[in-house]
Specification:
CATH topology: TIM Barrel
Strand order of the largest sheet: 7-6-5-4-3-2-1-8
Largest sheet: 8 strands, parallel
Radius of gyration: 18 Å
Number of helices: 12
Structural class: alpha/beta
Helix content: 40-55%
Mean pLDDT: 97
Order of helices and strands: EHEHEHEHEHHEHEHEHHHH
Strand content: 5-15%
CATH superfamily: Aldolase class I
Low-confidence stretches: none
Length: 292
């Protein structure tokens, strides 16, 4: 499957107080992204709090997400965990849901060397009935996916791409393996406009979840070659991200998603309640950037 250019949204996961899926909310969230012109969707990535979702909810989230998407966009599912058997258990839970690939980080508990990392990814890729995409998230896992590891994995028939904010690695992959069947999804949000100018045209980020209007307008500008316009909309998304970080990222994310009409909690269950001050700031920022 060849991935088209554009923005790929790392979806949020709406849960109730018991950690169960709020199905109607996820369906609405996916529909908003499709209407906004997203090129693909990642279900249960880091913004989708995959590592915090209880096992009994996992299969339903995949089933509901796939049914809501109805094959309209490429749909990827996070299977991150700390052992091969646990990763494969999640892949087995996907069942016959219509998805286009699974996304896997390095383990996020132990530190692995190059040989162990090679075994980690190739073993999962060998066993998975779905294409495997690497997820470079060293800020969380503490283990960087590096070019020497890519060299070992890029020709595996079931390893089809990577999501990374490492600009230099994407350039090196393009230079060293121009004919490889291997997609690069760039996640360096701050430089999405410049990356697009340089030909890196597939971008993935969780901020698109709560800024669908700005995401669409930014990529419409990029498609038209209006990079000054694209920068204005990217600045709106960055303002939203920085404001959320200032007041508490994940519970502010929940509040913003609720303002978009998507009910439920999109944050980890240990997050403290959002303050009234933060609510006011987030609502004002959402209005300022034109999302509500």
């Amino acid at each position: 499957m060849e991935l088209k250019k554009g923005f790929y949204t790392a979806l949020g996961t709406p849960l109730d107080e018991e950690g169960n899926l709020v199905a109607a909310s996820l369906e609405k969230h996916i529909e908003q992204q499709i209407e906004a012109g997203a090129s693909g969707l990642l279900l249960m990535g880091s913004m989708g709090i995959e590592a915090y979702i209880k096992n009994s909810a996992y299969a339903e989230i995949v089933r509901v997400g796939a049914a809501a998407n109805r094959g309209r966009l490429p749909l990827f599912v996070g299977v991150m965990d700390n052992s091969i058997v646990k990763v494969m258990e999640k892949i087995d839970m996907i069942g016959d849901a219509q998805i286009d690939g699974v996304v896997l980080t390095t383990p996020f508990y132990s530190v692995l060397d190059l040989e162990q990392l090679t075994n980690w990814f190739t073993t999962v890729a060998d066993r998975s009935p779905y294409p495997l995409y690497l997820y470079d998230l060293a800020v969380v896992t503490k283990i960087k996916i590096t070019l020497p590891l890519i060299d070992r994995l890029i020709h595996h028939p079931n390893i089809k791409g990577i999501k990374t904010a490492d600009w230099e690695m994407i350039q090196a992959i393009g230079r060293n393996y121009p004919d490889a069947d291997f997609a690069c999804l760039y996640s360096g949000l701050d430089s999405f406009d410049y990356a697009n100018m340089m030909g890196i045209t597939k971008n993935l980020d969780g901020m698109f979840s709560c800024t669908p209007k700005n995401g669409r307008r930014m990529y419409d500008c990029m498609e038209a070659g209006d990079f000054a316009g694209a920068r204005r909309y990217l600045d709106n998304i960055l303002l939203m991200r920085d404001t959320m970080l200032k007041h508490g990222l994940m519970y502010c994310f929940t509040y913003c998603m609720n303002l978009l009409g998507c009910e439920g909690n999109f944050h980890q269950d240990y997050c403290l309640p959002i303050t009234e001050e933060a609510k006011a700031v987030m609502e004002e920022t959402m209005k300022q950037i034109g999302e509500i």
